[in-house]
């Protein structure tokens, strides 16, 4: 009987270790005063309440202000993907960078390592203020 319990426990642990792989992605364009923003840092995280957020992917915008990124994370429950954008649009000489966080809806989460459900951010004009916008010196 002990052997059966051990086998069931090992099977359960294997299923637990691989069952939670999920992915998300986002893409869009960033502009400042109507002009494309090049080399803007964009990061995709899995937000963890009370802990350190898990970095899933990062990239920089190209010459047209375009970004596209996707990443995966293994979690027991549904991941909470968010997009952080760090920029200096209309920032003069202020220290650190402006940081905008966008929560990605659950319908853009895919099961497994491959993401085919991109959150379409569209064209984002960064000259204005966004709700919850902060400043970030270390990213």
TrEMBL record:
Identify the species of origin: Panagrellus redivivus
What is the protein name stated in its UniProt record?
Transthyretin-like family protein
| Gene3D superfamilies hit by this protein | 2.60.40.3330
Would the keyword Cytoplasm turn up in this protein's UniProt record? no
Q: Which UniProt keywords apply?
A: Secreted, Signal
Could you tell me which InterPro entries the record lists for this protein?
A: Transthyretin-like (IPR001534), Transthyretin-like_sf (IPR038479)
What's one GO-annotated cellular component?
A: extracellular region
The UniProt entry, under SUPFAM superfamilies, shows: Cna protein B-type domain
N-terminal signal peptide: 1-19
Q: Where in the cell is it found?
A: Secreted
